[in-house]
Amino acid sequence: MITIDGKQIKLQIWDTAGQESFRSITRSYYRGAAGALLVYDITRRDTFNHLTTWLEDARQHSSSNMVIMLIGNKSDLEARREVKKEEGEALPENMV
């Protein structure tokens, strides 16, 4: 629980590590969620490639006003980057 502007908010963060075995569980979490963080590893293209599937799932199983954020992590490993910054920034625009 966190307090924002004097109001108690229940904050839950679920890390499924993109594993298919969690797909059915995450679908039920989307239904009551106010937001979702979809995180990919900038040093592993496969994690970026799977984002479209996770994004489609989130959109399909959530309310239309749920906020979805795409986050590229491991930015400290720039030398090992496999996903260009421009690709990450363009993905949401390409998914509209």
From TrEMBL:
Keywords: GTP-binding, Nucleotide-binding. SUPFAM superfamilies: P-loop containing nucleoside triphosphate hydrolases (SSF52540). PROSITE patterns: RAB, RAS. Transmembrane segments: none annotated. It holds the Pfam family Ras. GO terms for molecular function: GTP binding; GTPase activity. InterPro entries: P-loop_NTPase (IPR027417), Rab_GTPases_membrane_traffic (IPR050209), Small_GTP-bd (IPR005225), Small_GTPase (IPR001806). Belongs to the small GTPase superfamily. Rab family. NCBIfam families: small_GTP (TIGR00231). This is Rab2 GTP-binding protein rab-2 homolog. It comes from Phallusia mammillata. The gene is Rab2a-001.
